[in-house]
Each structure stands twice: as structure tokens, then as C-alpha cells.
Design brief:
CATH architecture of one domain in chain B: 3-Layer(aba) Sandwich
Number of strands of chain A: 17
Strand order of the largest sheet of chain A: 2-15-16-17
Radius of gyration of chain B: 20 Å
Helix content of chain B: 25-40%
Shape of chain B: globular
Oligomer: heterodimer
Largest interface: A-B, 72 and 66 residues
CATH class of one domain in chain B: Alpha Beta
Number of strands of chain B: 10
Order of helices and strands of chain B: HEHEEHEEHEHEEHEHEHH
Chain lengths: ~575, ~290
């Protein structure tokens, strides 16, 4: 097996190393341990076009952007992200990232100074709608013909002047995050979609009944059914895009870890990979393996969190108690491994900061113990009828809806989409490690639950492979005297040249789904960093999942989506 | 196997903190402490300040101190200057005055002058007077004012069987009308200032505000931007400060117990700690450490 991109060949989604694992109706099978793959990981992707990590870059006029994207989407691509960057000369770059299985493509437009409108992409390509709303909020660019241009990451201001922070290079000059004054949120604004006798709107949030991340759902209802629900995410908007531009690469990775705190490792990895593309460095193999260990334990913790919330909602008191204890076990395992319960401070551009803090043999024993405990209780949970009945047919996302929007992560895979960055565009040690992509066909909360259950076991499988290889490698190259090679810093972290220049896009499979980072650097300095979390992309599908569901299903639908609103608001 | 049998499988996993120290909590890097606070040599002050991404290293008082309220525990200073800085092994890092988070080499308040010590002590005594009625039970209302999401996981962890704060009379409540303690996470975004303020106003007196996490204390690495502030103290008056990015469940628990005066080292408070299991006569040997 060769590294993807090394020979210019596209890897099919169902390649030789990984296969699709049907879960739910069919029995879950465990694949045999991977053999025969050489350690060819660590080869940097070639820089094609002007955006590293992508296959092609096309520049079109702003007036042709919508038509070009519509044509690409018609040919099978999906809109993965859309963002804007303000330039010092007053112009703005609009950039769309398209994904088609193994490839990422970029279509960009340059809007000259003074031009603040372009034909809306969302008019022709609905998945672009939220991206255009965000760009409108932050940059003031008007997508003409947009179906509904409400504020998204900024509050509604009730007709008062809305400041446009403009991101880096905006009104405050390059790299500035300020310069737009403060907001005057219109807290009484309650837009309504549905009208009719007895209809009323409940604003559920921003301060919700329990320990939740802040979000506001405008629920329009006439009693029990929920014909319309609209999430408002602006309460958590922290203005991180602009803040990134003020930091060096070493500090920016710390901020990346705090964009979506429950997926810190994934964010640090995506950011670091983008910087590594630009710097042209090869990450040492042990560092790549350790990154996989951290990333997969993070996936286990996130999926357990989602399952625990299901148990709590379904009143499964014992399952809740046991699985939340297991989640604590995973968090403690992560802190023993890297010193932090969320895996922060480990992944950095070039590799990892330190070898594992405990011997690998001890780590393997710990992982096995936690894995057994989790598997036993989840196995019992998934045959408990009073639990499964609450999830079955709840919060359906039909396959065609998921495919049209390009649903990511467990939400997409729960609806039959075979999409996983680790397989489509393998990175780091995933190029040579084997695992199964879990896919369910039902598209309901139970389907997404099945996907998470299978992914927990696959994540442990990946952790085992990575630790086994680290243990073998450790003996071969260092022997007993210095088992982790602590005396050899380059074994864990490659040195970065201070001259990296250009733009790169990197993607990883976070627990929530495909996570994209766009990083633009000039002479080693960060010019623009834009994270696009899977939560942002997937939240759009959330309102549609309430077809025929009632208030008591809310908790399951929300937990089964498993989103982090910090990652949505930015 | 029926769930009820499963529920008995692991015995008691609940920590005995705060009555007894907890091995895991005491091994976790909860904050940074100063090993050597001696005045910086010429030229050293700027290099010390330059190490820290959040400007938490403070040499303005002539000695070297760390402002835990700004520190995100990234460890850059510990890595580069192990002669001056080390990780704090105790999770008990909460303080009842913002200035008490600035620590020198001798732990809490080490960098403060005598008059500051007196002021901190005064603030603490005032808080103790205010919360006397809450000692047997405190109801907590959580509000996220722009966190990164990890703080909510750690707050939720307090309810799992390992921490089980119900045993200490700590309960989370949905309504601010029933709440005694407002636990706030996040940097204090512009859009959350109003809802947070209204939640605080809806709470009955006496009420306590706990800033949970470095973000809530100072804005952390996010810093003030056009949309976010430098901590929540500008929105609601904070009584107890818990640093950490995010604070571990032990640090949060320490903060809550400090807020209501239930820490064992507070004179006379030990007797007030309700511990249901202790009353039920559970033998201590039935406990297993969670790993």
C-alpha cells in the first residue's frame, strides 16, 4: 500500500486497508489485525496548485462563483466549507472547499475593493446557506438572492447598525480582532416561520435547564408537535478567527485546542497538519502513532458522552451511572497518558511535545481494562428494549437529505453515507492502520447510536495497533535503557523551518465528523486561520430531524447529533 | 445480566474527597506554581514574560509570580524554566479573591503584601458570613457564557458516581429561583452578558457567583475580542475563582466547597459536611479507586 497522494492515485473510499462495517441490523464483525503494510506514513502531501493539501484550485469571477459551484456539486462534489478573507488592500477573497471522495478542490473569487455583493451560492447550492450567513455577518458581503440572510454568529440588532468585524485584515487592519465597537443585541427579536391558529414560539435557551453548552432553540409549536425549530448560536461567538491572526504558530495551536474543547486533539491535529503541509516537514512515525492514540481516545470519550446523555434522557439510571464512570475512566487514562484530561498540549506542528508519560506496556493494560468495561455495559445497553424503543425512528435524517447536505461524521454514517476522512483522505498513521468504517442505514437516533458503538470498538482497535507498533519500534531502536527515546527529541517532533509561506487546507476526522482547517502563512507568520467544525456543518440538519417528533424526543435527537456549539459559533 | 446486578459490580467508586485526600486528584496538573520566586536577574524579566502566551508571569512586584487566573496550564514555562516553575500537584487551587490567584513560591497569596493578605482574609470572612445558611445544602445553577465546551464536561462529571456531589448536599437546579450558587463558565461573550445578568438577578439572596475556569476568570487565551470579554467579573460580581483550562472536577468541587465554607480545614466546618454514605455506615474498605 502506498501513501495517498504519493503516486497521484486517488484512493477509493473502500480501499484495501479498510472496509465498510454494516451495523445495526447486521451483526458487527471484527476485522483481523492489519498486516503487510509498510511504514510509509509520514509522507507530506504534494503541494498542488496554490493551496497545499488540495487537488485543484480554480479562480473564477465573483459573478460566476455560484454557477461554478452548482456545476461541481451537480457532478458529485459536496460543499465542505466556504469562507472569506479580507485583504489589506480592501479586497476580499471568497473561497469554497469542495470534497469528492479522496480529493479536496478549491474554487475562489477575488472581490475587488468596494465590491460587497455577489450572486448567492445558496440559491443554487443549499448547503452553502449557513456559510454565506456567517460571511455576511463577519465581512458584510451580501449574497444576492440568498434564501434567508438572518444573522448567524452575530446577534440580531433590530435594525440598528451591525458592526462587521471583518476577520483578519478587516476594519481593524491585518491581524486585528477589534475595531468594530460593541454590539447592541436585540434580545426581544423572535422571528417566526410558521403562522396559524394556536401557534406560538418558545425560546428554549440561551440559559437552558441543565448543564449544557449555551444555544437557543426557537421552537414553534401549537402544543406537542414541533413543526419548526431554529437554532440560534450567536451567544457563544467569541471572535476566534481574528484572535488567531494575533498569535504565532506555537500559541495558535493552543487556541485551536480551545475552539471546540471536547475535540481538542482533532483541532490541534488539523491545524498542525496544515502548518506541516506549508513547512514541508515529515512528522516522525512515533509521533504520528501517538497522535492516533490521543485522537481515538478522544473519540471514545465523545461517543461515550453522547451515549451517557441518551441513558440520562431514557431514565436508564444504572447504565447512566456505569457509563459515566467509564467515561471518567477514559478521561483519567488520557490524563495519565499525556498529562491533560482533554489531551491538550500534546499535538503541535511537527509532531508531539512529549513521549507517553507511562510505559507502553502499562498503557496497553489500562486500555484493555477500560475497553472491556465499556464493551460489557454497552453490550447490555444495546439489548435493553426500554432504551432502544426511545431511539428507534426518533430524529430521522433520510439518506437523500444527508447526502444532499453532505452530512458529516456519525450523523452522515448513521444515514448510510460512507464518509470518513481517515479512509477518504488518510493522514498520519491512519495510512497504514486498519479499521472498519461503521455505517448504519436507518438514519434515526438508533442508527447514529449503532455507529458510535461500533466506532468505540474500532477506536480501541486502532489504539491497540498504534501502541503495539510503538512498543515494537521502541525495542528495536532504543532497547531497554531509554525505552521511549526521551533522549532523542527529533524522534517525537520534527523541526519547523521559520519560512513557511502559502495556503493549506487540512482535514481530520474529529469525533463530530470531518474537521477542516484553512491556514494561510507568510514567512512563518500566520495570516489567516479558519477552522470549520463538523458541528457547524451538521447543525443545519438538526431542525429537519424533528419530522413528527415531539418535545420528549428532543434530548435524544440532540444527544444523537453529538454537536459542540463552541465549534459552531467560533 | 439484570442491570441491578451490574450496578453492584464495582462496589463503591466514589472518592472520599474532601474528607480524605484523593490519589488521582493529587496527581493531576491543576495549575503552575513558582519554585524559585527570587527577583529576576537583569534581562530575565522579559524572557520570562515572553514564554507565556497569556502573560500570566508577573514580575512587577520585584519577585517572580504566576497569575493562575490568566494561566492556561500549557506548561511552556515549566518546560523551559524548570528551575523556576513546576506543576501544582494539588487540585485545591480555588480562591475567594481574585488577587489570591497570583501566587509566589510559598503557595497562595505568597506574592501579596501584608495588607493584601488582610484584604483577602476580609473578603473570605465576609463570604463566610453571607453563606452560613447554605452549609447543609447548596443548589447550583450553571450558565455557559462562552466556554469551549470542555468545562461543561467537567461540571457534568461532578454528577457521576466518582464525584457524586449529591453526597455533599450539592445539587444542580434548572431554575435560578431555586439556586444559591451561580457557576459560570466561559469568557463572558457580549451576547451572553444580558442573559447571565438576568439569571443572576433572578436568584434569591444570599447568592454566590463562582467563575469556573481560566476563561471565566480572565478570558484566558481568547482575550477580549470584539465579541468576548476578559472574564465574567465585568458582568456579575464573582465570589470564588477557580482557575484551570478546564478546571478538573476536583478543582470545581474545591471551589464549590470553598464558596459555602465546607472545606475541612475551615474551622468548625468539618462537622457540617453531610456524607450520606458515612451516616449509612458503609465501611471504607468497600471503595475502589477508579482507573
Amino acid at each position: 500500500m502506498t501513501a495517498a497522494g504519493g503516486s497521484g492515485e486517488a484512493r477509493p473510499p473502500e480501499g484495501d486497508a479498510n472496509r465498510v462495517l454494516g451495523v445495526g441490523a447486521s451483526a458487527a464483525r471484527r476485522r483481523a489485525p492489519e498486516t503487510g503494510s509498510d511504514a510509509s506514513g509520514g509522507v507530506a502531501l504534494p503541494v498542488v496548485g496554490r493551496v497545499a493539501g488540495t487537488t485543484s484550485v480554480v479562480t473564477v469571477d465573483g459573478s460566476d462563483l455560484a454557477a461554478t459551484l452548482a456545476q461541481r456539486v451537480g457532478a458529485g462534489a459536496r460543499v465542505a466549507a466556504m469562507l472569506a478573507t479580507a485583504r489589506a488592500d480592501g479586497s476580499t477573497t471568497l473561497l469554497a472547499v469542495l470534497a469528492r471522495s479522496a480529493h479536496l478542490d478549491v474554487v475562489e473569487s477575488h472581490l475587488e475593493p468596494g465590491r460587497s455583493a455577489y450572486p448567492s451560492v445558496a440559491r443554487l447550492v443549499p448547503p452553502a446557506a449557513w456559510y454565506e450567513r456567517e460571511i455576511h455577518d463577519l465581512f458584510g458581503l451580501v449574497p444576492e438572492g440568498h434564501p434567508r440572510l438572518d444573522p448567524l454568529v452575530l446577534p440580531q440588532t433590530g435594525g440598528a447598525h451591525t458592526p462587521r468585524p471583518g476577520g483578519p485584515g478587516g476594519s481593524g487592519g491585518p491581524g486585528s480582532s477589534g475595531g468594530c465597537g460593541s454590539f447592541a443585541p436585540d434580545t426581544a427579536a423572535l422571528p417566526a416561520d410558521v403562522v396559524g391558529e394556536g401557534m406560538f414560539t418558545i425560546p428554549y435557551g440561551p440559559v437552558r435547564s441543565g448543564v449544557f453548552e449555551t444555544i437557543e432553540y426557537l421552537i414553534e409549536t401549537f402544543g406537542e408537535d414541533i413543526p419548526s425549530i431554529r437554532p440560534r448560536v450567536h451567544h457563544k461567538h467569541r471572535g476566534l478567527d481574528g484572535r488567531f491572526g494575533e498569535l504565532g504558530a506555537d500559541e495558535a495551536v493552543l487556541l485551536a485546542e480551545r475552539v471546540e474543547g471536547v475535540a481538542s486533539v482533532a483541532h490541534a491535529m488539523a491545524f498542525s497538519q496544515a502548518v506541516e503541509h506549508l513547512a514541508g516537514v515529515v512528522v516522525p512515525r512515533p509521533a504520528e502513532l501517538l497522535r492516533v492514540v490521543h485522537a481515538e481516545l478522544e473519540r471514545v470519550a465523545n461517543h461515550l458522552d453522547s451515549i451517557v446523555r441518551h441513558c440520562e434522557g431514557a431514565g436508564q439510571a444504572v447504565a447512566y451511572a456505569r457509563l459515566s464512570t467509564h467515561k471518567e475512566r477514559v478521561m483519567r487514562l488520557r490524563s495519565r497518558l499525556g498529562g491533560h484530561r482533554f489531551g491538550r498540549g500534546v499535538v503541535v506542528p511537527g509532531g508531539v511535545t512529549a513521549p507517553p508519560r507511562i510505559p507502553i506496556a502499562a498503557l496497553l493494560a489500562d486500555v484493555e481494562r477500560v475497553e472491556r468495561a465499556v464493551a460489557s455495559d454497552i453490550g447490555a445497553l444495546m439489548v435493553t428494549p426500554s432504551f432502544l424503543d426511545r431511539l428507534r425512528k426518533t430524529g430521522p435524517v433520510p439518506h437523500d437529505v444527508a447526502a444532499a447536505h453532505g452530512a458529516l461524521g456519525p450523523v452522515g454514517r448513521g444515514s448510510g453515507l460512507v464518509s470518513d476522512v481517515r479512509v477518504e483522505r488518510p493522514y498520519g498513521a491512519y495510512r497504514s492502520l486498519g479499521f472498519d468504517v461503521a455505517v448504519a442505514q436507518d438514519g434515526d437516533a438508533l442508527g447514529r447510536q449503532h455507529v458510535r458503538v461500533a466506532e468505540i470498538s474500532q477506536a480501541f482497535h486502532l489504539v491497540h495497533q498504534a501502541l503495539d507498533e510503538l512498543a515494537r519500534d521502541e525495542l528495536r531502536s532504543h532497547g531497554e535503557r531509554d525505552p521511549v527515546g526521551a533522549g532523542d527529541p527529533l524522534r517525537w517532533r520534527a523541526l519547523l523551518p521559520a519560512t513557511a509561506t502559502g495556503t493549506a487546507v487540512a482535514s481530520v476526522e474529529a469525533p463530530q465528523g470531518e474537521l477542516l482547517y484553512l491556514v494561510e502563512m507568510a514567512a512563518g507568520r500566520l495570516v489567516r486561520v479558519k477552522p470549520r467544525s463538523a458541528s457547524f456543518h451538521n447543525l443545519v440538519l438538526f431542525p429537519g430531524a424533528f419530522q413528527g417528533d415531539i418535545f420528549t424526543d428532543f434530548v435524544f435527537i440532540e444527544a444523537s447529533f453529538g454537536l459542540s456549539f463552541a465549534g459552531v459559533a467560533g | 445480566m439484570p442491570w441491578i446486578v451490574r450496578g453492584l459490580r464495582d462496589g463503591i467508586v466514589t472518592t472520599r474527597y474532601p474528607r480524605r485526600p484523593d490519589g488521582y486528584g493529587d496527581g493531576y496538573r491543576a495549575a503552575v506554581r513558582v519554585v524559585d520566586a527570587r527577583p529576576p536577574v537583569p534581562g530575565e524579566a522579559s524572557s520570562l514574560a515572553g514564554m507565556c502566551p497569556t502573560a500570566a508571569i508577573d514580575t512587577s512586584g520585584g519577585v517572580v509570580a504566576v497569575d493562575r487566573g490568566k494561566c492556561i496550564v500549557c506548561g511552556a514555562c515549566v518546560e523551559q524554566r524548570p528551575d523556576r516553575f513546576a506543576f501544582e500537584p494539588s487540585p485545591e487551587v480555588a480562591a475567594s479573591a481574585r488577587r489570591a490567584l497570583v501566587v509566589g513560591s510559598s503557595g497562595h497569596a505568597g506574592a501579596l503584601g501584608a495588607e493584601d493578605d488582610a484584604a483577602v482574609e476580609e473578603a473570605r470572612a465576609e463570604l463566610a458570613r453571607r453563606v452560613r445558611v447554605l452549609r447543609r445544602s447548596v443548589h447550583v445553577r450553571h450558565v455557559d457564557a462562552g466556554s469551549d465546551g470542555s468545562e461543561e464536561w467537567e461540571v457534568n462529571a461532578l454528577l457521576n458516581p466518582v464525584y457524586d456531589v449529591h453526597r455533599l448536599g450539592v445539587f444542580f437546579t434548572a431554575s435560578p429561583r431555586h439556586a444559591d450558587l451561580l457557576l459560570v463558565t466561559g469568557v463572558g461573550t457580549a451576547a451572553m452578558a444580558g442573559p447571565l445578568r438576568r439569571t443572576w438577578e433572578a436568584m434569591p439572596d444570599p447568592k454566590i457567583v463562582l467563575a469556573a475556569g481560566t476563561d471565566a476568570v480572565s478570558g484566558g487565551l481568547v482575550q477580549p475580542t470584539y465579541a468576548s470579554g476578559a472574564g465574567i467579573d465585568a458582568i456579575v460580581p464573582v465570589d470564588v475563582w477557580v482557575p484551570g483550562s478546564p478546571p478538573s472536577p476536583f478543582s470545581l468541587l474545591h471551589g464549590i466547597l470553598l464558596a459555602v465554607g465546607l472545606l475541612p480545614r475551615d474551622r468548625g466546618a468539618t462537622a457540617a459536611i453531610p456524607d450520606r454514605r458515612r451516616r449509612a455506615g458503609t465501611r471504607a474498605s468497600g471503595r475502589t479507586a477508579v482507573r
